[in-house]
Amino acid sequence: MSTVSTAASPSVDLVRRTAFTLFGRFGYDGVSMTHLARECGLTKPGLYWHYESKQALYADCMRDMVGLFETHVFAAALMEDAPARQILAAFEGLENPLADPCVAHGVAGFWLRPATAPVDEAMTVQRDFEAMARGATAQILQAAVDDGALVLPLSAERVADAFIAQVEAIVLPLGERSPADHHALVGLFAHMFFTSYARDSTLVDGLARKLKTGHT
After folding, report:
1. What pTM value is reported for the model?
2. Within the chain, how many helices (H) and strands (E) appear?
3. DSSP string covering 120-178, please?
């Protein structure tokens, strides 16, 4: 937990955003507090005035990483009423994190398991989010099946596991692809998903048109 109140919020925000970028690139083990202090223009004691430990800072950064996907993917999906449209909105939401400068260099470091210190708080945040993501995805998929919009080859839970794995495969190389390439990949993934499972051909046709024009 942060050791300071909102009185120092501008400095805390700088530390947190800088740390997010570094942890996203290099993982927990690849970032030292000395390096982070230098990047923030602070002394090392000044950095520890804001955060009592590297583990606490990492946990907050993990919350920020989770928050990106909760906001851009799942919150966007839940704004739609029809289950099939919720899935489409989730695909579209996968493009939005690139608008955050902190994500420009990638977030793969958050999937590297730390070996130099226990980071139980951060790992709990990540596990809870992954469980929520799988549960919410399975629920939306099952609703789409019940609604007659999708036909799935396996249970909604199994397809949700595959769906999340594909999302991770898209997310992990963020920072290595251009926004245009990322946009095209997400669009192609959406088109493949709906081509495979959608009963409503208008969704597939609409995605095909958007792929040709470069818009998802």
Report:
1. 0.85
2. 10, 0
3. HHHHHHHHHHHHHHHHHHHHHHHHHHHTTSB--SS-HHHHHHHHHHHHHHHHTTTTTS-
